[in-house]
Protein backbone atom coordinates (compact mmCIF):
# COMPACT_ATOMS: atom_id res chain seq x y z
CA UNK A 1 0.00 0.00 0.00
CA UNK A 2 1.18 3.52 -0.78
CA UNK A 3 1.08 6.07 2.03
CA UNK A 4 1.52 9.85 2.11
CA UNK A 5 2.49 11.59 5.37
CA UNK A 6 1.94 15.31 6.02
CA UNK A 7 1.35 17.52 9.07
CA UNK A 8 1.26 21.04 10.50
CA UNK A 9 -0.94 22.71 7.90
CA UNK A 10 -1.94 25.53 10.28
CA UNK A 11 -4.90 26.55 8.12
CA UNK A 12 -5.94 30.08 9.05
CA UNK A 13 -2.47 31.22 10.09
CA UNK A 14 -1.52 34.85 9.57
CA UNK A 15 2.05 35.52 8.46
CA UNK A 16 3.03 38.77 10.19
CA UNK A 17 -0.66 39.78 9.90
CA UNK A 18 -0.96 38.80 6.22
CA UNK A 19 -3.74 36.39 5.26
CA UNK A 20 -2.51 33.06 3.83
CA UNK A 21 -5.74 31.71 2.34
CA UNK A 22 -4.26 31.71 -1.17
CA UNK A 23 -1.17 29.77 -0.09
CA UNK A 24 -3.12 27.14 1.81
CA UNK A 25 -5.56 26.68 -1.06
CA UNK A 26 -2.68 26.26 -3.53
CA UNK A 27 -1.14 23.59 -1.29
CA UNK A 28 -4.41 21.71 -0.91
CA UNK A 29 -5.04 21.81 -4.65
CA UNK A 30 -1.52 20.46 -5.20
CA UNK A 31 -2.10 17.73 -2.60
CA UNK A 32 -5.31 16.55 -4.29
CA UNK A 33 -3.39 16.25 -7.57
CA UNK A 34 -0.45 14.51 -5.88
CA UNK A 35 -2.70 11.94 -4.22
CA UNK A 36 -3.94 11.04 -7.69
CA UNK A 37 -0.65 11.10 -9.60
CA UNK A 38 1.14 9.09 -6.89
CA UNK A 39 -1.83 6.70 -6.57
CA UNK A 40 -1.90 7.08 -2.80
CA UNK A 41 -3.94 4.59 -0.75
CA UNK A 42 -3.59 6.21 2.68
CA UNK A 43 -3.19 9.85 3.74
CA UNK A 44 -1.81 10.54 7.23
CA UNK A 45 -2.23 14.07 8.68
CA UNK A 46 -0.32 14.27 11.96
CA UNK A 47 -1.86 17.22 13.77
CA UNK A 48 -2.18 21.01 13.67
CA UNK A 49 -4.69 21.02 10.85
CA UNK A 50 -5.71 24.50 12.01
CA UNK A 51 -3.64 27.30 13.48
CA UNK A 52 -6.02 28.08 16.34
CA UNK A 53 -8.44 26.01 18.40
CA UNK A 54 -11.42 28.06 17.22
CA UNK A 55 -10.80 28.40 13.46
CA UNK A 56 -12.87 30.67 11.26
CA UNK A 57 -15.75 29.37 9.17
CA UNK A 58 -13.69 29.91 6.01
CA UNK A 59 -10.81 27.81 7.42
CA UNK A 60 -13.18 24.98 8.34
CA UNK A 61 -14.80 25.15 4.90
CA UNK A 62 -11.39 24.97 3.23
CA UNK A 63 -10.46 21.85 5.17
CA UNK A 64 -13.69 19.96 4.55
CA UNK A 65 -13.74 21.03 0.91
CA UNK A 66 -10.32 19.40 0.61
CA UNK A 67 -11.60 16.17 2.17
CA UNK A 68 -14.52 16.21 -0.25
CA UNK A 69 -12.32 16.78 -3.31
CA UNK A 70 -9.72 14.22 -2.25
CA UNK A 71 -12.25 11.44 -1.59
CA UNK A 72 -14.27 12.22 -4.72
CA UNK A 73 -11.12 12.03 -6.84
CA UNK A 74 -10.17 8.72 -5.19
CA UNK A 75 -13.14 6.99 -3.49
CA UNK A 76 -10.86 4.29 -2.03
CA UNK A 77 -8.52 6.76 -0.35
CA UNK A 78 -8.26 6.22 3.42
CA UNK A 79 -7.51 9.32 5.51
CA UNK A 80 -6.39 9.39 9.15
CA UNK A 81 -6.24 12.76 10.93
CA UNK A 82 -4.98 13.38 14.46
CA UNK A 83 -5.27 16.57 16.51
CA UNK A 84 -2.24 18.72 17.28
CA UNK A 85 -1.62 21.18 20.10
CA UNK A 86 -3.07 24.03 18.00
CA UNK A 87 -6.29 22.11 17.32
CA UNK A 88 -9.30 21.77 19.55
CA UNK A 89 -9.50 17.99 19.96
CA UNK A 90 -13.27 17.96 20.53
CA UNK A 91 -13.98 20.47 17.76
CA UNK A 92 -11.89 18.49 15.28
CA UNK A 93 -13.74 15.30 16.23
CA UNK A 94 -17.19 16.90 16.01
CA UNK A 95 -18.03 15.59 12.48
CA UNK A 96 -17.00 11.98 13.29
CA UNK A 97 -20.62 10.69 13.22
CA UNK A 98 -20.97 12.06 9.69
CA UNK A 99 -17.65 10.56 8.58
CA UNK A 100 -18.05 7.11 10.16
CA UNK A 101 -19.53 5.72 6.96
CA UNK A 102 -16.58 7.00 4.92
CA UNK A 103 -12.86 6.26 4.94
CA UNK A 104 -12.01 9.43 6.90
CA UNK A 105 -10.96 8.86 10.52
CA UNK A 106 -10.40 11.76 12.94
CA UNK A 107 -8.79 11.14 16.33
CA UNK A 108 -8.63 14.08 18.69
CA UNK A 109 -9.44 12.81 22.17
CA UNK A 110 -7.89 10.13 24.35
CA UNK A 111 -10.98 8.46 25.80
CA UNK A 112 -10.99 6.57 29.10
CA UNK A 113 -13.39 4.25 30.91
CA UNK A 114 -14.94 4.82 34.33
CA UNK A 115 -11.79 3.47 36.04
CA UNK A 116 -9.55 5.88 34.11
CA UNK A 117 -8.13 3.24 31.74
CA UNK A 118 -7.30 4.43 28.22
CA UNK A 119 -9.56 3.02 25.50
CA UNK A 120 -6.86 1.95 23.06
CA UNK A 121 -9.46 0.52 20.68
CA UNK A 122 -10.46 4.10 19.79
CA UNK A 123 -6.83 5.03 19.08
CA UNK A 124 -6.39 2.09 16.71
CA UNK A 125 -7.46 2.54 13.08
CA UNK A 126 -7.52 -0.43 10.64
CA UNK A 127 -6.30 0.23 7.12
CA UNK A 128 -7.73 -2.03 4.43
CA UNK A 129 -6.39 -3.25 1.10
CA UNK A 130 -8.33 -3.40 -2.14
CA UNK A 131 -10.02 -6.63 -0.99
CA UNK A 132 -11.24 -4.90 2.21
CA UNK A 133 -8.91 -6.99 4.35
CA UNK A 134 -7.02 -5.30 7.19
CA UNK A 135 -3.46 -4.76 6.00
CA UNK A 136 -2.15 -2.20 8.51
CA UNK A 137 -3.01 -1.15 12.06
CA UNK A 138 -2.40 2.54 12.74
CA UNK A 139 -1.80 3.87 16.25
CA UNK A 140 -3.48 7.25 15.68
CA UNK A 141 -2.16 9.13 18.71
CA UNK A 142 -3.10 12.83 18.92
CA UNK A 143 -1.22 15.53 20.84
CA UNK A 144 -1.15 14.37 24.45
CA UNK A 145 -2.06 16.79 27.20
CA UNK A 146 -1.68 16.29 30.94
CA UNK A 147 -4.16 13.63 32.00
CA UNK A 148 -4.12 11.89 28.61
CA UNK A 149 -1.08 9.70 29.28
CA UNK A 150 -0.50 7.23 32.16
CA UNK A 151 0.76 8.63 35.46
CA UNK A 152 4.16 7.20 36.38
CA UNK A 153 4.96 7.66 40.05
CA UNK A 154 8.41 8.55 41.40
CA UNK A 155 9.98 9.27 38.01
CA UNK A 156 12.30 12.04 36.85
CA UNK A 157 10.10 13.23 33.97
CA UNK A 158 6.40 12.33 34.22
CA UNK A 159 5.65 13.58 30.69
CA UNK A 160 8.39 11.66 28.90
CA UNK A 161 7.82 8.45 30.82
CA UNK A 162 4.03 8.77 30.66
CA UNK A 163 3.95 9.28 26.88
CA UNK A 164 6.47 6.49 26.39
CA UNK A 165 4.23 4.20 28.45
CA UNK A 166 1.19 5.13 26.35
CA UNK A 167 2.95 4.24 23.09
CA UNK A 168 4.17 0.98 24.66
CA UNK A 169 0.68 0.03 25.82
CA UNK A 170 -0.89 1.08 22.50
CA UNK A 171 1.60 -1.07 20.58
CA UNK A 172 0.93 -4.06 22.83
CA UNK A 173 -2.81 -3.63 22.29
CA UNK A 174 -2.33 -3.45 18.50
CA UNK A 175 -0.10 -6.54 18.62
CA UNK A 176 -3.02 -8.52 20.04
CA UNK A 177 -5.07 -7.54 16.97
CA UNK A 178 -2.27 -8.05 14.46
CA UNK A 179 -2.35 -11.20 12.35
CA UNK A 180 0.15 -12.70 9.92
CA UNK A 181 0.81 -10.42 6.98
CA UNK A 182 -0.32 -7.30 8.84
CA UNK A 183 1.90 -4.45 10.03
CA UNK A 184 1.72 -1.61 12.56
CA UNK A 185 2.43 2.10 12.03
CA UNK A 186 2.03 5.04 14.41
CA UNK A 187 1.26 8.74 14.38
CA UNK A 188 2.26 11.39 16.91
CA UNK A 189 2.28 15.11 17.50
CA UNK A 190 5.16 15.76 19.88
CA UNK A 191 8.75 16.94 20.29
CA UNK A 192 11.48 14.31 20.06
CA UNK A 193 15.00 14.45 21.44
CA UNK A 194 17.53 16.12 19.11
CA UNK A 195 14.91 17.36 16.65
CA UNK A 196 16.16 20.37 14.68
CA UNK A 197 13.77 23.26 15.23
CA UNK A 198 12.99 26.61 13.58
CA UNK A 199 12.76 29.96 15.38
CA UNK A 200 8.98 29.55 15.63
CA UNK A 201 9.38 26.04 17.07
CA UNK A 202 11.81 27.44 19.67
CA UNK A 203 9.36 30.16 20.71
CA UNK A 204 6.50 27.68 21.04
CA UNK A 205 8.72 25.29 22.96
CA UNK A 206 9.60 28.04 25.46
CA UNK A 207 5.89 28.74 25.97
CA UNK A 208 5.06 25.07 26.48
CA UNK A 209 8.11 24.37 28.67
CA UNK A 210 11.44 22.74 27.98
CA UNK A 211 11.21 19.13 29.12
CA UNK A 212 8.51 17.73 26.83
CA UNK A 213 10.84 15.56 24.75
CA UNK A 214 10.32 11.96 23.69
CA UNK A 215 13.20 9.63 22.72
CA UNK A 216 13.09 7.69 19.47
CA UNK A 217 13.22 4.53 21.59
CA UNK A 218 9.65 5.27 22.76
CA UNK A 219 8.48 3.77 19.46
CA UNK A 220 8.74 -0.01 19.39
CA UNK A 221 11.20 -1.35 16.82
CA UNK A 222 8.40 -3.33 15.14
CA UNK A 223 6.45 -0.17 14.30
CA UNK A 224 7.20 0.10 10.59
CA UNK A 225 6.71 3.88 10.26
CA UNK A 226 6.18 6.74 12.72
CA UNK A 227 4.44 9.76 11.13
CA UNK A 228 5.25 12.76 13.32
CA UNK A 229 4.01 16.33 13.46
CA UNK A 230 4.77 19.39 15.62
CA UNK A 231 8.26 20.31 14.34
CA UNK A 232 8.13 22.37 11.15
CA UNK A 233 11.35 21.17 9.57
CA UNK A 234 11.19 17.85 7.70
CA UNK A 235 13.71 15.40 9.17
CA UNK A 236 14.31 11.88 10.33
CA UNK A 237 14.77 11.18 14.04
CA UNK A 238 17.32 9.09 15.91
CA UNK A 239 19.04 8.16 12.66
CA UNK A 240 15.98 6.12 11.72
CA UNK A 241 14.60 6.40 8.20
CA UNK A 242 11.16 5.29 9.39
CA UNK A 243 10.73 7.88 12.20
CA UNK A 244 10.05 11.19 10.48
CA UNK A 245 8.63 14.68 10.69
CA UNK A 246 7.09 15.64 7.36
CA UNK A 247 7.45 19.33 8.25
CA UNK A 248 4.96 22.08 7.50
CA UNK A 249 3.80 22.62 3.89
CA UNK A 250 4.17 26.42 4.19
CA UNK A 251 7.04 28.40 5.71
CA UNK A 252 6.04 29.52 9.20
CA UNK A 253 8.87 32.04 9.74
CA UNK A 254 11.78 33.65 7.90
CA UNK A 255 14.09 31.14 9.56
CA UNK A 256 12.56 28.64 7.10
CA UNK A 257 13.71 30.68 4.11
CA UNK A 258 15.84 27.86 2.69
CA UNK A 259 13.76 24.88 3.84
CA UNK A 260 12.49 22.43 1.27
CA UNK A 261 8.87 21.94 2.35
CA UNK A 262 7.68 18.47 1.47
CA UNK A 263 5.45 15.48 2.03
CA UNK A 264 6.73 11.94 2.61
CA UNK A 265 5.60 9.05 0.41
CA UNK A 266 6.42 5.36 0.84
CA UNK A 267 5.24 1.86 0.02
CA UNK A 268 4.41 -0.47 2.88
CA UNK A 269 3.92 -4.19 2.51
CA UNK A 270 5.50 -6.07 5.38
CA UNK A 271 8.43 -3.66 5.19
CA UNK A 272 8.89 -0.08 3.94
CA UNK A 273 10.17 0.50 0.42
CA UNK A 274 10.39 3.35 -2.09
CA UNK A 275 10.46 6.02 0.64
CA UNK A 276 10.86 9.50 -0.85
CA UNK A 277 10.07 13.14 -0.23
CA UNK A 278 8.10 15.23 -2.71
CA UNK A 279 8.82 18.95 -2.63
CA UNK A 280 5.80 21.23 -2.32
CA UNK A 281 5.74 24.16 -4.77
CA UNK A 282 6.14 27.52 -3.02
CA UNK A 283 3.26 29.75 -4.11
CA UNK A 284 4.42 32.88 -2.25
CA UNK A 285 8.20 33.24 -1.77
CA UNK A 286 10.01 34.72 1.20
CA UNK A 287 12.56 37.43 0.51
CA UNK A 288 15.28 38.87 2.78
CA UNK A 289 17.08 42.15 2.01
CA UNK A 290 19.96 42.25 2.68
CA UNK A 291 21.13 38.77 3.64
CA UNK A 292 23.15 40.26 6.50
CA UNK A 293 22.23 43.54 8.24
CA UNK A 294 23.61 46.75 6.68
CA UNK A 295 23.39 50.45 7.64
CA UNK A 296 20.03 52.05 6.88
CA UNK A 297 21.20 54.21 3.94
CA UNK A 298 22.62 51.13 2.19
CA UNK A 299 19.44 49.14 2.78
CA UNK A 300 17.30 51.98 1.39
CA UNK A 301 19.44 51.91 -1.76
CA UNK A 302 18.80 48.18 -2.18
CA UNK A 303 15.06 48.63 -1.66
CA UNK A 304 14.94 51.39 -4.28
CA UNK A 305 16.11 48.82 -6.88
CA UNK A 306 13.29 46.35 -6.28
CA UNK A 307 10.85 45.69 -9.15
CA UNK A 308 7.59 47.64 -9.44
CA UNK A 309 4.30 46.07 -8.33
CA UNK A 310 2.34 44.18 -10.99
CA UNK A 311 -1.24 42.89 -11.12
CA UNK A 312 -0.55 39.43 -9.66
CA UNK A 313 -1.05 40.50 -6.03
CA UNK A 314 -1.55 37.01 -4.55
CA UNK A 315 2.01 35.88 -5.29
CA UNK A 316 3.81 39.02 -4.08
CA UNK A 317 6.76 37.95 -1.86
CA UNK A 318 6.84 38.52 1.89
CA UNK A 319 9.85 40.67 2.76
CA UNK A 320 12.12 40.81 5.78
CA UNK A 321 14.31 43.91 5.89
CA UNK A 322 17.52 43.62 7.93
CA UNK A 323 19.12 46.81 9.24
CA UNK A 324 22.22 47.58 11.28
CA UNK A 325 21.82 50.60 13.58
CA UNK A 326 24.16 52.22 16.07
CA UNK A 327 21.37 53.87 18.04
CA UNK A 328 17.68 54.83 17.95
CA UNK A 329 16.28 55.60 14.51
CA UNK A 330 13.13 57.74 14.66
CA UNK A 331 10.38 56.76 12.20
CA UNK A 332 12.37 53.73 11.01
CA UNK A 333 9.33 51.84 9.71
CA UNK A 334 8.05 54.93 7.89
CA UNK A 335 11.39 55.34 6.10
CA UNK A 336 11.39 51.70 5.02
CA UNK A 337 7.76 51.86 3.88
CA UNK A 338 8.45 54.98 1.84
CA UNK A 339 11.33 53.20 0.09
CA UNK A 340 9.02 50.25 -0.65
CA UNK A 341 6.10 52.30 -1.97
CA UNK A 342 4.97 50.76 -5.28
CA UNK A 343 7.45 47.86 -5.05
CA UNK A 344 6.51 44.24 -5.65
CA UNK A 345 6.93 43.06 -2.05
CA UNK A 346 4.89 42.90 1.14
CA UNK A 347 6.79 44.22 4.15
CA UNK A 348 6.40 41.56 6.84
CA UNK A 349 9.27 42.21 9.24
CA UNK A 350 12.02 44.70 10.03
CA UNK A 351 14.90 42.95 11.78
CA UNK A 352 17.11 45.50 13.57
CA UNK A 353 20.58 44.64 14.83
CA UNK A 354 23.06 46.69 16.84
CA UNK A 355 26.86 46.40 17.06
CA UNK A 356 28.06 43.46 19.12
CA UNK A 357 28.46 44.29 22.76
CA UNK A 358 31.94 44.80 24.18
CA UNK A 359 30.59 45.21 27.71
CA UNK A 360 31.71 43.08 30.63
CA UNK A 361 29.30 40.71 32.35
CA UNK A 362 26.43 42.57 34.06
CA UNK A 363 27.35 43.99 37.43
CA UNK A 364 25.36 43.01 40.49
CA UNK A 365 23.79 45.91 42.41
CA UNK A 366 23.02 45.66 46.09
CA UNK A 367 19.69 46.98 47.45
CA UNK A 368 21.55 49.92 49.01
CA UNK A 369 23.22 50.81 45.72
CA UNK A 370 19.89 50.48 43.90
CA UNK A 371 18.22 52.95 46.24
CA UNK A 372 20.97 55.47 45.51
CA UNK A 373 20.61 55.26 41.71
CA UNK A 374 19.06 58.28 40.04
CA UNK A 375 16.70 57.98 37.04
CA UNK A 376 19.42 59.31 34.73
CA UNK A 377 21.79 56.56 35.93
CA UNK A 378 19.21 53.87 35.16
CA UNK A 379 18.51 55.43 31.77
CA UNK A 380 22.21 55.46 30.94
CA UNK A 381 22.65 51.77 31.84
CA UNK A 382 19.57 50.69 29.87
CA UNK A 383 20.60 52.73 26.82
CA UNK A 384 24.10 51.30 26.86
CA UNK A 385 22.86 47.73 27.25
CA UNK A 386 20.53 48.21 24.28
CA UNK A 387 22.76 50.12 21.85
CA UNK A 388 26.26 49.41 23.22
CA UNK A 389 27.18 53.11 23.22
CA UNK A 390 26.94 55.96 25.69
CA UNK A 391 23.84 58.15 25.59
CA UNK A 392 24.36 60.97 23.02
CA UNK A 393 24.44 64.39 24.65
CA UNK A 394 21.30 65.71 22.88
CA UNK A 395 19.22 62.73 24.09
CA UNK A 396 20.73 63.08 27.56
CA UNK A 397 19.66 66.72 27.74
CA UNK A 398 16.12 65.82 26.63
CA UNK A 399 15.91 63.16 29.34
CA UNK A 400 17.06 65.64 31.98
CA UNK A 401 14.42 68.11 30.81
CA UNK A 402 11.66 65.49 31.05
CA UNK A 403 12.88 64.38 34.48
CA UNK A 404 12.81 67.95 35.77
CA UNK A 405 9.25 68.47 34.45
CA UNK A 406 8.10 65.26 36.14
CA UNK A 407 9.66 66.32 39.43
CA UNK A 408 7.99 69.75 39.21
CA UNK A 409 4.61 68.15 38.52
CA UNK A 410 5.06 65.76 41.47
CA UNK A 411 5.77 68.66 43.78
UniProtKB/TrEMBL annotation:
GO process terms (BP): DNA recombination; DNA replication
Report the source organism. Flavobacterium xanthum
- What lineage does UniProt assign to this protein's organism? Bacteria, Pseudomonadati, Bacteroidota, Flavobacteriia, Flavobacteriales
Quaternary state and interactors: Heterodimer of SbcC and SbcD.
Please provide, alphabetically and separated by semicolons, the GO molecular function terms listed in this UniProt record: 3'-5' exonuclease activity; endonuclease activity
Family, similarity comment = Belongs to the SbcD family.
> Pfam families, per this entry?
Metallophos (PF00149), SbcD_C (PF12320)
Q: What is the protein name stated in its UniProt record? A: Nuclease SbcCD subunit D
| PANTHER family reported in the protein's UniProt record | COMPONENT OF ATP-DEPENDENT DSDNA EXONUCLEASE, NUCLEASE SBCCD SUBUNIT D
Purpose: SbcCD cleaves DNA hairpin structures. These structures can inhibit DNA replication and are intermediates in certain DNA recombination reactions. The complex acts as a 3'->5' double strand exonuclease that can open hairpins. It also has a 5' single-strand endonuclease activity.
Per UniProt, residues of the Calcineurin-like phosphoesterase domain are: 1-233
Domain Nuclease SbcCD subunit D C-terminal per the UniProt entry, residue ranges: 284-386
Q: Which key words are in the record?
A: DNA recombination, DNA replication, Endonuclease, Exonuclease, Hydrolase, Nuclease
List the NCBIfam families hit by this protein, alphabetically: sbcd
The signal peptide stretch is none
